[in-house]
Structure formats: structure tokens, C-alpha cells
Amino acid sequence: MFVKEAGKRTGPLLVFLHGGGVSGWMWNQQLEYFNHYHILIPDLPGHGQSREENVFSIRDTAEELIKWIKPENSDKKVVVVGFSLGAQIVVEMLHQEPDLVDYAMVNSALVRPNPILHSLISPMIKSTSFLIKNRTFARLQSKELYINEGNFETYFQESKKMRTETLIQVLQENMTYTLPGNFSQAKAEILVTVGEKEKGIMRKSAEDLVQAHPASNGIIFPQVGHGIPLANPDLFNRTLDAWVNKQPLPEELRLL
Fold first, then answer.
1. pTM (global) more than 0.85
2. 139 DSSP assignment
3. Strands, DSSP E only, in 56-210?
4. Residue 29 has what pLDDT?
5. Residue 237 buriedness (CB in 10 A; 0-12 / 13-18 / 19+)
6. Pairing of the two strands 216-221 and 254-255
7. DSSP code for 44
8. 173: how many CB neighbours lie within 10 A of its CB?
9. Neighbouring C-alpha atoms within 13 Å toward the C-beta of 165
10. For 33-84, how does the pLDDT look when each residue is reduced to its tens digit (9 = 90+)?
């Protein structure tokens, strides 16, 4: 995997994991705000500058990221933040290595599998893959994901280059991921978030995560769907900063 490194190498370790269909650039609005941290932002397998890795699984990606983080953490505080697919990987990391992470922010993670939809993904993607190369369709998709004009061209070009089989794997992994049985054993303090306008299954998944771990809290970002880091980076940054430093969270937020 390609990984971007930024910030202050002697600072606490902060790892950002992007969602499916985008890449590490989705965290550009976090770089300056958290520049006192040692930041690592990978492009997940099949995405961005890691597109040549054409086999994707949540389990294997989590395992590889754990191998990266272990030599870096030593005495450092370790904060891992994931959005959507990246959030599922965070959950899997907490499952595989319960003692590794100090703070985990899990944004919009689906943990209620849909086996029926899983079986439809391959034929559906194969029959509509031509749309990925259509600029008009990409613009519609980008609005749903809160991708601004400055990032649109990067999003569009990366989407065109993503292999159809990789996209199928990513979606199948996303749709079938299940909350691990030992999730409650993770030593991390966990903040689970969901957008107010997200689908009901996302709200239920967030509730499942909060109920499954004794050191977890859940919040709702107001007036936003699936994409809070891009939709309102200021609120997102203030929330992450306050939570990690045990300060009061922004008043705009609601408890889950």
C-alpha cells in the first residue's frame, strides 16, 4: 500500500483510513489541523496509488496496517480514524490486535451484513461499469459523497482507473462485514459516529457498535448524510480533537 506521511514525527500517531471509491486525499482537510501529530494516510488496496493491489479484503488490510503501526507506536499515543470502509477496517484492527490502539474513531461503519445484496453486486457492477467512466454520472456521485470541485477531477480519474473486479470485491466486503465477537475486549476508547441523514441501517450499525463495547460513545453529526469528513471538515476536526484530548464535544452534536 502507498502511504502518505505528514505532520510531526515525534508527535502522537494518527492514522486516517478513507472510504471505498476514494483515496487518501479525502483527509486533506485534516492535515493542517492535526499537523502536531505523526500522520499516516494509506491508499487502501485497489484505490488511488495502491490501485495495482487488485485483491482486497478487510481482514488482510487490517493485518497489514497493524504491522505498520506496531514499529511506530512504541510509547506514543495511537489514534486511528476510519470512514465507511475505513471504519470497518478500524473495527477489524481492534478485533485482531485489541491492545494496539488508544483511541479509535469509527465513522459510518456498516456492521449489519446484507447477504441478498451481496449476491447482486457482481452482476450489477459488471452491467453498469461503463457509467464509472462517464463524467456526468461521476458528478452526481460526487455530490452524494460531498466531494468538492477541487477534488472532483482526482476522484473521477481514480474512479476510471479502478478495476471492476476490485470494485466488486470492495463492495462485497463492505456488505458482508460483521461485528467481531471479541470487539468488547479492545482496550481503545471508541467514538462511534453517524450522520443524521444516513440510512437507517447505518444508524442501527452505530448503535450495535456502541452497545458492544463498554468504553464506546456514540454521536450524531447533524444535517449530514454519508460523508461527514468531507461535508463539514471543521466540525469533524473539532470533534476529533476534543474527544482525543478529553474536552467537551461541540455543542452541535447529538448523542446517539
1. yes
2. H
3. 78-83, 103-107, 189-195
4. 96
5. middle
6. antiparallel
7. P
8. 20
9. 4
10. 999 999 999 999 999 999 888 789 999 999 999 998 987 666 789 999 999 9
